[in-house]
Amino acid sequence: MTPRAATSLVLIIAIVALLAVAVRPRRASTLDFYLAGQRIGVVTNACAICGDYFSAASFLGVAAAVYASGLDGMWYATGFAAGFVPVVLFIAAPLRRFGEFSIPDFLGRRLESSAVRLTAVGVVQLVILSYLVPQAVGSGITWELLVGHGAAGMDAYTTGVVVSTTVITTLVVLGGMRGTTWTQAVQFLFLLAVLLWLTVATVGSGFSYPSAADGIRQEPFHNPVLHEDGWRLVPQDNALDPTRAARFDEPGARYDRLSQFALVITLVLGTAGLPHVMNRYFTSPSGWAARLTTVWVLGLAGLFYALAVALGTAARALLADAADDHDWLGELTVEGVLHVPEHALLALGRLYGGFAGLGLIATGALVAVMSTIAGLLLAAAASWGHDVYERHLRPRATQEQAVRAGRLAVVAVATLSATLALALRPESLTALFPSVVAQMVTWAFAVAGSGLTPVFVLAIWWPRTTASGAVTGMAVGSSVAVATVAAGLWTGGGVLLLAPALLAAPAATIACLAVSAVTSPPPGVEAAWVRLHGTAADRQAERLARLTIRGVDGERSRRSPARRRR
After folding, report:
1. H or E element, residue 326
2. In a domain, 542, yes or no
3. Rounded CA gap, 216 and 210, in Å?
4. Average pLDDT, the chain
């Protein structure tokens, strides 16, 4: 690592650490640790959600998918950005108006069932783990290219995984949601600035997106594959028409029509079930603020992914010509095509900014990883510390004890995810997927979109949803999603790896509807409906009625011993 690259990396980590410590909660309150006191403003929360959401799959993976698959890779950007449309239309405002700590807490309170809460905790932990592992993989890939060597006897990949996980785990334990919010907002602004700089640098060098696309489409599409005797460049099969060569600007370079549709559906449905993203809406001061926050997120996401797609195309057009003139790039490519597509932005950064540019892009990648890991670890802490420990294991625990349990959960989940990431080697999967990181994140979206989103939406919009129906829906959706992915891996790829939500989400919805139809809804459904969809006046009247009933019940309980004595 050059001094400039090391300086940029240390500087951004220092800024993030100082922010996390400076704005950390001063008292051990669960409301402060998990929800930042529910006082986060619209623009700040929008930037924090983007920092939470734009993971290594977004920063490295989308450009990599476009680089390796052309038009088919753009479906990742489409699905990631469009995922917030159903959130703004159906979820953000009623979720915040109901007001709990997490998705399991919301479902458990809405359906008045401990079984629902604990089942949701299990699904949430599966989603979190599925999402954490590719973030750690992304950090290892970035460290390999940025530093090139390990430390303390570890190789470069292992060092990257260990360092990123250790740093962000420490910051989350210290800063909680308040510290994480501000660090994620700053991290997102840094990521956006990095993409803007790289875009300006490529355009300033004479790059033109239309002319680059025209040049790339002239040649059949090829990608490298690792064989026993080394890397080879092989033609990419056309999934839509086997008689024609695959081309960069045409669909079919990687997926057939069903796979393309399945990928977008999985990403769109999965966004609404991501615990680290949905938990952020509980930090908004009101339902209106939560909805406006999502509108901001949609605009920022559109800009971010448009830049990522353009840079993926630029990498495909520019790196091939530059490989002959730069020895370092020749080592990363075969006949001008990168071995690992996730190196696309990193290679562009070094090409136009030297080692300083490489350090800037690599720092951005590590920032994306750490920002998302922070949100996921906080979601894990809320599930274990609040939904399990505080709600079930020790209902009378003090605020300090509940926060301590959440911090221990952060350390445990981070350790497990890093261990799983170390067991994976991304180069062994590049033949199957256009971007290993983006594809692994898609599996997390599949579990979230199948196991949580259908029940989540029904609980918000269908008053007949029951606890038994919700438990059945979550169990069916998550089981079918996991089984589908496992079957796809076992058979060597295909639509099964991309279609989990296309199969599992309808199965979960049908299961929840069918069981709810033959079981009874919770007794407090009318009051819950007012909290979800009523006006401010309706909710105020409902709160007054609830307080009045509690007062009458309390007066009766005080009088009953006197009556018994008489």
Report:
1. none
2. no
3. 10
4. 81
Q: Tell me which residue range forms the domain holding 371.
A: 3-24+33-428
CATH number, domain with residue 405: 1.20.1730.10
30 Cβ neighbours under 8 A, 6+ residues apart:
101, 385, 386, 390, 399, 402, 403, 406
Domain count, the chain: 1
What per-residue confidence (pLDDT) applies to 171?
Answer: 76
Closest CA to 400 of 383, 384, 385, 379: 385
Look at residue 336 and give its three-state secondary structure.
Answer: coil
The residue type of 379 is: A
> What whole-number distance in Å separates Cα of residue 5 and Cα of residue 346?
12
Residue from 323, 350, 66, 351 nearest 212 by CA: 66
Of 273, 316, 274, 276, the closest CA to residue 73 belongs to 316
Q: How far apart are CA 60 and CA 178, in angstroms?
A: 27
pLDDT tier at 459, thresholds 50, 70, 90: very high
For residue 233, list its beta bridge partners.
Answer: 224
Residue 349 and residue 360 in contact, taking contact as beta carbons nearer than 8 Å: yes
CB 25 within 8 A of CB 176: yes
Q: Which of 265, 275, 261, 287 is nearest to 88 (CA)?
A: 287
Query: 412 is written with which tokens?
Result: 């445990």
